[in-house]
Amino acid sequence: MIDLNQLAERIHTLNGLTIHTVKTDKYKTNSLILMIKAPLAKETVAIRALLPQILQNGTANYSTRKQLRERLDELYGAMLTTDVQKKGEQHIITVRLDVANERFLSDATPLFEQALSLLAEVLLKPRLEEGFFVKSVVDNEKRSLIQRIQSVYDDKMRYANVRVTEEMCKNEPYALTAFGHVEEVEEITPERVYRFYEELLKTNQFDLYMVGAIDEEKALKQATAAFQTLASKHESTEMTKTTPSPEVNEARIVHEEQDIKQGKLHMGFRTYTTYADDDYVAMQVCNGLFGGFSHSKLFMNVREKESLAYYAASQLESHKGIMMVMSGIEFNKYDRAVEIIKEQFEAMKKGDFSDQEIEQTKAMLKNQILETADVARGFVELAYHQVVSGHERTMEEWLNQVNVITKEDVIRVANKVKLDTIYFLKGKEANQ
């Protein structure tokens, strides 16, 4: 397991780019992870999801995807990946480049520096045609994104999660998915996405994580040089705050019918607690006891004892403060399943759990955090919570905070939680 002393993060702020260096021998490769953050908004969600896919299709110097891949191969099989996700009401683009540690090479290739300049080129010098992105590339990536959006409909567990979130957060940005809707993607043109890209370079928040066996001073100079045109374009932006969760008076109930064999019962709770709050770690323990681990109340009582569900678990969203219960049930078990899930949370509020269960949950939670940090990408995900929330909590502090959580803490935070929405996706033959 990872030694936290080996993962000291140092932060350096340039105009337009914050550089996070983590000098460590723990990982086999060196990782460059660029996080690009902006508020989640209906007008931009689809175009933001499309942009990173376009960028990895070629640069000014490597004008096709094939040439870019060949350049990565020359860098001893470096890996370039992009993704987009939402964290609370922030929309995050990730561009990641993993490269071999040059200490293990027989020649003196300045691999890290070359990887840095390639990452900067992917972002700052994309391949253009008549001043805009290449139409054939944009069209191809639009097709891929549309397929990705449509694939959610085929995965009923993901679909139910999207639907319960839409219903629960109707007038909040969090209702949006990270990829937008098909019709929004269809409307995107090469000109429009290029104009959006120019705006993104000026206004988004850029965080570059450099993790591995690096010479920090040297890496910092190299990154400053590689990304200097970004700094020159950048305008300072205010950090946006997440919409506060509204008070819940009564749970909303939404039923939907489709031609399916197994019902999906998803229940959304408001926790009124996010990563930025002092109660966050206690809420993590509360979620772990309720439905986060295999010894939790949902797993033991809903799935094992009553055999009501094929699966039953809960997840905490760290930046919006939503706890989501997900279960797969037979259509005729709906009433009993809702009743017993509610009963399990009432038991949490009353403190109906043992000290041993708390200790087991704390051990599993700490293990989960340490396992996540076992790979560079996981460590950056954990560290980036601080950027999204504006709240500092190092991994060491996080683990120490888990250690001191008491039964009283868990009961206190459980009593803040309110059931907001019950969503049930059932088959057409289920007459309920």
In short:
The chain is an alpha+beta fold.
Q: pLDDT below 50 for ≥5 consecutive residues: which ranges?
A: none
* Share of β-strand residues: 15-25%
What profile does the largest beta sheet have?
6 strands, mixed
Based on CA atoms alone, the radius of gyration comes out at 23 Å
Structural class: alpha+beta
**How would you describe the shape?**
globular
Average pLDDT reading: 93
Can you give the helix content as a percent range? 40-55%
First and last CA, distance: 50 Å
Quaternary assembly: single chain
Strand order of the largest sheet: 1-2-8-3-5-4
Give the helices and strands as they follow along the chain.
EEEHHEEHEEHHHHEHHEEHHEEHHHHHE
The number of strands is: 13
Question: How does this structure look, described?
Answer:
- There is one protein chain.
- This protein is of the alpha+beta class.
- The chain has helices at 45-55, 65-74, 111-124, 135-154, 156-168, 182-186, 190-203, 216-226, 228-233, 280-292, 297-305, 334-350, 355-372, 376-389, 395-403, 407-414, and strands at 9-14, 17-23, 29-39, 79-87, 90-100, 128-129, 132-133, 205-212, 252-258, 263-270, 309-317, 322-329, 418-427.
- The strands form 3 sheets. Strands 1-2-8-3-5-4 form a 6-stranded mixed β-sheet, sandwiched between helices. It has a 5-stranded mixed β-sheet with strand order 9-13-10-12-11, with helices on both faces. The chain has a two-stranded antiparallel ribbon with strand order 6-7.
